[in-house]
Design goal:
Blueprint: H1 2-12, H2 19-24, E1 28-32, E2 46-50, E3 55-61, H3 68-83, E4 88-93, E5 104-106, E6 112-114, E7 116-119, H4 126-129, H5 134-139, H6 148-160, H7 164-179, H8 184-194, H9 196-202, H10 207-221, H11 227-254, H12 259-266, H13 270-280
Parallel strand pairs: 3-4, 4-7
Antiparallel strand pairs: 1-2, 2-3, 5-6
Helix pairs in contact: 6-8, 7-8, 9-10, 9-11, 10-11, 11-13
Length: 291
């Protein structure tokens, strides 16, 4: 669960996102990272303050814990001592098995304590899918999805609009969370397609050539009346890069490649070349790729 905790914390605390308000019903305006005394081994996932000044404590839980209420009471007592007020507390369950954790502590009438426990899979994903913030979109993968594959394509499309390192980071976050819903393989397969062009650009042989072509096309595209030619040149540059990558992959895997296969490649589109490139790594012989 520790791997997921850091991802969930980043997504929840995004200052531009809607997730925290959607999940708690309160508008969180600041976050803090409180450190409990060394005598305690607990570490709070997320502690923030809403627009009324209330302290809000959020925990993510990936499995059922019979002692969850006692743990949350420890958090509450520490935050009460630290801030002089009792926090509003939420536990969001992200596990796959049926949720079954106590939410109250009652000790012979001397103390009655409870916290808010919600199964995030029961919440409608649409408000976060519709958010303009990609981190909200990613978090939505844990919620109730009417069409999981369509929702994933929607999220991946948003991630694809990001640039460079931000795109990679967002994709890895989605991949981690999708694993909690047994959708990791689907995300990974779609992710391969998303990063094909990026891999072309990083290739040591034709990457610089393709990059120069794309830059030249961008400059030409600024000239009035050249938009159509710009797009055609951009597409041809992409297709040429895709074709070279496939040819090099074939040569590296099989050595001698039949002329009939090379002829077939010359007529493929960019999308078909990208698909063909993935098949190269699963085929046992070049002839298997002709079907």
């Amino acid at each position: 669960m520790q791997d997921y905790d850091s991802t969930l914390k980043q997504l929840l605390q995004d200052p531009q996102g809607l997730a925290a308000e959607y999940l708690t019903g309160r508008r969180l305006v600041s976050w803090r990272n409180p450190e409990m005394p060394a005598t305690l081994t607990l570490r709070a996932d997320s502690v923030g303050r809403d627009d009324t000044g209330e302290t809000v404590h959020i925990e993510w839980q990936g499995r059922n814990d019979a002692k969850m209420a006692a743990r949350m009471l420890q958090y509450a007592a520490w935050l009460l001592n630290d801030e002089g007020r009792f926090p509003l507390q939420y536990v969001f369950y992200v596990g796959a098995s049926e949720m079954s954790m106590p939410t109250t502590v009652v000790s012979e009438g001397r103390i009655v304590y409870s916290y808010n426990l919600l199964n995030i899979a029961d919440l409608d994903a649409e408000p976060l899918l519709a958010s303009p913030d990609v981190r909200d979109n990613i978090l939505a993968v844990l919620m109730r999805l009417d069409d999981r594959e369509r929702a994933l394509h929607r999220i991946l499309g948003r991630i694809g609009d990001l640039r460079d390192a931000n795109r990679r980071e967002a994709y890895q976050q989605l991949r981690r969370l999708a694993g909690l819903r047994h959708m990791g393989e689907l995300v990974e397969e779609e992710g391969k397609r998303m990063f094909v062009l990026e891999d072309y650009l990083e290739h040591d042989t034709f990457g610089p050539v393709l990059a120069r072509n794309l830059e030249k096309e961008r400059q030409e595209g600024r000239r009035e009346g050249r938009q159509e030619g710009h797009q055609e040149g951009r597409n041809e540059g992409k297709r040429e890069g895709a074709l070279q990558l496939v040819q090099r992959g074939l040569a590296k895997r099989f050595g001698q490649v039949p002329d009939s296969l090379l002829q077939q490649l010359s007529g493929l589109s960019i999308a078909e070349l990208e698909e063909f490139n993935f098949r190269v790594f699963t085929a046992n012989r070049p002839e298997d790729l002709l079907n």
